[in-house]
Amino acid sequence: GPSDKAHEQAEIALKWLRDCNESHPQCAALSTKDFRLPTRLIRVNGPTDSLAQVVDTREDLTTGPYITLSYCWGQSITTRLLLANLDEMKTGFPIDSLPKTLRDAIAFTRKLGISYLWIDSLCIIQDSKTDWEAEAIRMGEVYGQSYCNLAATNSSDSDGGLFWDENPHSVRPIVLTPQIQPILAEPVVLFDRNMWQMRIETSSPLNNRGWVLQERVLAPRTVHFTYDQILWECHQTRRAQYFHLRLPCDDEEWAGNKGKRINIHNLRNPQTPDEGISWKHQWNAIVHTYTTCRLTFPEDKLVAIGAIAARIAAQTGDEYVAGLWRRDMPQNLAWTPMPYRGRPPPNYRSPSWSWAAIDGPV
C-alpha cells in the first residue's frame, strides 16, 4: 500500500541524500553556505502527531535544514494560510485537513528526519498582496537554499499525492551477465533511454508549469515522485529507484535526448571564450524548456524565470535585459519561434525584440 511505498522510497531517498552529502563536493559547497531561512516554515512535528504548525522564523529562533515542495495546486486548496487564521495555524493545524499531496509531503519529511517544510499555500499569507509580493521576490532563495525539494511530478492537482501504486506497464531495466567461458564478461544493462524524459519532461503535469522550472533548476537536490518510481536529481548526478547505476546526464551520454541536467550553480565569469559558451548554452536550454511550459497568468512570463536570471547575473556579472543578456545582445536577438507555434499575446508584457513578447516555444 501507499504507506509501505512511502517507507521504501524514504529509505532510498535517505541513502541518496547520504551519498550526496558525503561524496558530492559541488552539492556540499552549496548546502554549507550561510543562508537566511524563509519567513515562515511548517514544523512537521507539531504538539501532537496529528498536528503541524506554521512557524514565523523572525519570532522563533528556528535553525536547521528544511524541505520544499513543488506541486500543482489544481482547482482549490481548502486549508491555506490567511490573515484570519494566522494565529491558529501557528498554534497547530490538523494534518488531515490538508490535500493529499501536502499530507504526503509532511509524512515524507518526517521519514527523512527533517523538522521543517516549506509549502507556498501554508507559508505565504494567501490574501495579503504585501506578503505575496515580499515572498515572490525570495522564491529563488527559498528553493535554492532548501536541503531537498520534493516534486509531485505526476500529480495534476494537490489531491494527487506523492505515492503511486505499482504501474504494471512500467519497463524496468534488465541486467544481463554474459557467460563467456572461462571468464565472466561485464554485465550489460538494458534500459529505456527515454526513461527520464518520459517521466520528467513529457508526461509530467508538474513540469509543464512555467513557475516550476525555476524551482527545479534552483533546488540543490530534487526527489521526483513519478507514476512508477522516485527519481533523483542533484548537481552531480541522477538516480532512479529501479536503476541502481548513475543515470547519464549529458547530451553525449543521452545520444541527443533532451534530458540534459541544467546546472547554473557553478557558473563563473568566463575567462575564456569556451567558458563563456557554457553558461550561454545553459541559458538557451532554459529558455527553450521554459517557453514550452504553461503559465496560468501570461503576464508572469518574465517574473517566473526571474530568480534564475538573478542567479546567473550575480555569478557572471552580465546585465539581464527582458530575457536577454547585454554582453551578447546581437546573438541573443537571433532567437526564433518554433514554426507555426509562436504568436503575440493580447496584452503588452515585454519589448517586441524579446522572446518573452510571444506565446509559444522558441
Compute the number of strand runs: 15
- Give helix % range: 25-40%
Low-pLDDT segments, ≥5 res: 250-261, 268-272
Query: Shape, please?
Result: globular
Query: How would you spell out the order of helices and strands?
Result: HHEEEHEHEHHHEEEEEHHEEEHHHEEH
Structural class: alpha+beta
Radius of gyration (Å)? 21 Å
* Gap between N and C termini: 43 Å
By DSSP (H or I, 4+ residues per run), the number of helices equals 13
Determine the mean pLDDT: 78
Which quaternary structure do these chains form?
Answer: single chain
How many domains?
2
Q: Numbering strands along the chain, what is their spatial order in the largest sheet?
A: 4-2-1-5-3-6-11-12-13
The proportion of strand residues reads 5-15%
* Main beta-sheet annotation: 9 strands, mixed
Care to describe what's here?
With 362 residues, the protein is an alpha+beta fold. 33% of the residues lie in helices and 14% in strands. It has 13 helices and 15 strands. It has helices at residues 2-23, 25-31, 86-91, 100-111, 120-123, 129-137, 139-144, 195-202, 210-218, 251-254, 273-291, 306-316, 329-332; strands spanning 40-43, 51-56, 66-70, 93-94, 116-118, 148-151, 174-176, 179-180, 183-184, 188-190, 221-225, 230-234, 238-240, 320-321, 324-325. It has a nine-stranded mixed β-sheet, with helices on both faces. The protein has a two-stranded antiparallel sheet with strand order 7-10. A two-stranded antiparallel ribbon has the order 8-9. The N and C termini lie far apart (43 Å).
